[in-house]
Amino acid sequence: MSLMNSVFKNEGKLLLRNKFLAIPFLLNLLYWGYSIVAYEVQPTHYEERAAAFYQSFLWILLLNLLIVGLVAVYMASKDRESDFEALVATYQVKNSEWILGKWLITQLYGLCITVLTIVVQGLWFISATMTLENWFQHIFYVFIQMEGAFFLLISIGFLFAILIKTILAYLVIPACLVLSLLLPFDYTGKAAVWDNPILHLFTPFDYMFVESPYEGIWGIHHVFKDSILHQCAIILLGIVVISVALLLFRHHRRSQREKKLLPILITIFIIPMVVLSGIRFMQYDRALKQYISTGKQYQESFLGEDDESYYEDYKDDQPYDFAMEKTNLSVELQADDQIIVQSTLTVKNNGNESVDDVFLTLYHGLKIKECTSEMAVACSREGDFITLHFDEEIQPGEKFDVHLHYQGNVLQYRDDGYVKQAFIDKQQIYLPKEAGWYPLIGKRPLVIARERSDLYAQFELRNARLVEDFPTEFSVKITRGNQEVPLALTIPEIRKNTFQGISQYGLSLLGGNFTEEKVGNIRVVAHTEVLNGMKEVLKRYQKSWSFMEDWLGVPMAPSVIYILSDNYYYLTHRGMNHDFYMLRSENIDDSEIAYELLNEVIQDFSNNNGDFHIVYDAMVWMILNNLNEQVRFTEWYKSNYWVEDEGIALANLLQSYEEKGPEPFKDVLKYLFDDWKGLENKQDFDMEAALKQYEGAAK
């Protein structure tokens, strides 16, 4: 032990004298200094400090892993390369004393980089909006991710420096990083057919997430437990690897004690490593299997090639004569993603015919315990669809009540099992409407999936677009264990854990670290740090919504807005309507707002011809001009598009109306839009003919 201590001290002195080994610390300080200053100097913040930190953290971590791994190879091989080891071999020094002294000082070098990172993180997060418990959780998450990765990479560096007695040993570290992290680098939720997502577990730090481990109002709760499990297994593997290196180093210098102790030590650490790795493997394997089983259940063959046509062909746009007039829910949220619900539904026949079968939709993972009505009814179920068969036909205009008692597990996955689609935990709750956690009227596809032979899962899966034909009056009472986590629904909270209101969108339940405020008449649910920044964005949205409502006579402004991370925005934004909106934590420019809102109004772009594209562009210009004054439409059009003579001619047709002023231009565009909207075949739209009709009507 004394000799190992001497080696440790000597190597420490050599490290302190080596000026080049101070470069990584300077790089880290400069990198974090730039990241923090670049964030803090912004007058308005659109994302949380933690989000900005983790976006930077992943890239500097890769660089630190490369540097520390190369230092490990250097530390293990430098004496051999300088011929000093030949002299040391004559000393009475054991393998473990010689190697572990160097290994420990290298681990200390990696630990110093880790400490530097968490000091920067801890100081920066003091000004972030989070509890002390969450602050410690973030610190520990970064510590275990970095130290576990350094621990393993340093051990691998020592092992291969011993096995490969040439400069090629230095190539092992970048090769390991490339194989585990960059091949494949497809963390987009769509693993290619040759890329088994389970292989992504074989990384020096836990990388089983899409984009960033940080999820806005849910922090790192999604990944925290799994990451600790993963990194504990990595640390145990690092001990096994360095023990193997000790066995292979200088056979003739191994003591009898080392010969007996090292195999026992390897066995002792391999067993818990395998157990922890097995638990982590089974966790993700369950998620992946559930994702695959979900896709297979909903999978349909699709012959089209265009992604948008795939979505449009399978969207939920079939009207249903029955309406859910009232929905009263008594919801009990339990741990482990379990839910118990007592529901009373008031259904009305808005059709012109009497029927004896009424259909409901409820996620198939929720088991119905009771289904009753004052009228004689028989309930049957197939997958997500519930059939209510009445002995007496339901007449037009007639209402009836149905009582459903159901319970079950709501945990659902998307994106190859990386993203939880619906979940209930102590610190985080998310039950989107698309999860089918409460009864929907009619036969509704909760998920649409199409065959994709180029993907590992053999299908592409996305949430369905659930559009209601009629508004519903909701009353929801929620009971739960942890009362500290705030809740939000797409209807207002009238008292603690009781929500009531009318919505045509439906219900999406949210629980996490957020603040709810009103911006105008709109309820905004967002992380406290992004609320002020998003208010600035929402002012521009509100200005556009009001303008379009006055101009086109269509409802636009939502009653509630959720601001969530990218993953959940992409899962939900196609199903939004004027009652509910979801935004990401980012600054959105005027062009994005204009195109997004106009696309919401138009929706169906199939079979549109060039004439309507000019009208579409003119409407975009009109929305932009309302936000900030633009150049003339024809100039804007020519500067933004690569146009042919025909396109310029069509744009010039509108120029005379623009020259008359904004109001005449608005009127003619409204007329053209209504003319296009009334056509059954959109290819028949003729702008020149429509303008002649407009002039005739004006005269």
UniProtKB/TrEMBL annotation:
Parts of the chain that traverse the membrane: 20-37, 57-76, 108-127, 139-160, 167-185, 228-249, 261-282
Superkingdom in the source lineage: Bacteria
Keyword check for Membrane: yes
Keyword Membrane annotated: yes
Alphabetized UniProt keyword annotations: Membrane, Transmembrane, Transmembrane helix
Protein name: Uncharacterized protein
